[in-house]
């Protein structure tokens, strides 16, 4: 079993498979499934440091698209419930979100509340393009900071030159 797992992990870490794996895991982890994509992105970058930017980009894209699936589920659920009840549904718990509008999607990267936030943004029928843009910004910054921080913390691993200059 251990040999099989080692072979699988080595195969998935190859650049030609690793980016696809990071995309799929990032996409699935942005839905309401209880999983995280950060270990996959970090592992890929640790094994293939030259894939730092592609991994961040692919994970951001996958996670944003997964967030938009949650947005669409919220929008669809609201439309279905409104049609079944014969009148508009309103939840008091989301009143504060309405004040922020699509900008609240900047927080879609947060653990526990981020994925439901995308769902609620759809429920509130926030504009999809604005939500996607704000989600992408927040998720990109999360992947960038977490991956760079983990690389920095990993013993003997050098950070990309631009990051060293910025920290510097």
TrEMBL record:
Transmembrane parts of this sequence: 20-44, 51-73, 131-154
What keywords appear on the UniProt entry? Membrane, Transmembrane, Transmembrane helix
Asked whether the UniProt record includes Kinase among its keywords, one would answer no
Q: Does the keyword Ribonucleoprotein apply?
A: no
Looking at the record's lineage, which domain of life comes first? Bacteria
* Protein name as it appears in the record: DedA family protein
